[in-house]
Write a structure and sequence with these properties.
The chain is mainly α. It has one domain. It is 85% helix and 0% strand. It has 10 helices and no strands.
Length: 257
């Protein structure tokens, strides 16, 4: 058991470093070029696969784990507390995105910061989801999903900051902050995992799992649809198949975890 925990810690540390490098390098490459590269169809398929993994992680792992932990701590609950926390996470990201898109005055002044906040919240929760993972299969799949998403998220954030003509130094600081958030989330999740293993942090783990499930659900559904509008062509079918594949893989992993 101890060897398994040590292996997971080493793996999560390596994952944190690689995720930071991907996020930072992708943004810096765009800052140097000052224009977005062609968004290849293969990248969109990868993002759809990652969205499916997030969707499966939310429904097959994180929310069930939260419900199980709440039940263990408080017995049979008369109110669906984990589900409420999950919905709160979903609605928080939805509110922030609607806020940035629904008001002209906000769009002209604060939209880059609001969208950066959305991505930062998701970066922290996805990192913590990886950090809190107790099985190698689950954490490997989340690592793949995060790595696929991270490059495109960095590009998207950098494009928005450039489009709104923010000073270079401010863009650089925001990119650094965004790149650090997932590794910070991994560290936070690993600490929670250790506390849970010591039977002292189960409530924190339960609340986090429920909240993160809501943010994963939002990113893999409404946020995904907003940026992937292929509905009738072959690409749309391939993206849906990729999304379904990612969700199915997480469902299969749930059979052994």
């Amino acid at each position: 058991m101890r060897d398994h925990m040590v292996t997971l810690i080493y793996y999560k540390a390596i994952a944190a470093i690689l995720i930071f490098l991907v996020a930072f390098t992708a943004a810096i490459a765009l800052l140097k070029r000052k224009h977005a590269p062609r968004h290849a169809e293969s990248i969109e398929l990868g993002e759809a696969l990652a969205s499916g993994i997030f969707l499966g992680a939310a429904f097959f792992h994180m929310l069930p784990d939260a419900i199980r932990l709440f039940s263990h701590l408080y017995g049979t609950l008369n109110y669906p507390v984990p589900e409420v926390i999950c919905v709160a996470g979903f609605l928080l990201l939805l509110f922030l995105e609607r806020l940035s898109l629904g008001n002209a005055s906000i769009q002209s002044t604060s939209i880059p910061y609001i969208l950066a906040l959305i991505l930062i919240i998701h970066a922290v929760t996805e990192g913590a989801a990886l950090g809190i993972g107790s099985t190698l299969a689950e954490t490997v799949m989340l690592f793949i999903a995060i790595l696929v998403h991270k490059g495109s998220e960095s590009f998207a954030l950098c494009i928005i900051l450039l489009r709104h003509k923010l000073p270079f130094n401010r863009i650089f600081m925001i990119i650094i902050l965004f790149s650090l958030m997932t590794p910070a989330g991994i560290l936070f999740g690993a600490v929670i995992n250790q506390l849970t293993f010591a039977r002292n942090g189960e409530l924190i783990a339960a609340i986090f799992n429920a909240f993160a499930a809501g943010t994963f659900l939002y990113i893999s559904t409404l946020h995904h649809i907003h940026f992937h509008q292929h509905t009738k062509d072959k690409q749309g079918i391939l993206e849906f198949t990729s999304l379904m594949t990612g969700a199915s893989v997480m469902g299969i992993i749930a059979l052994w975890t």
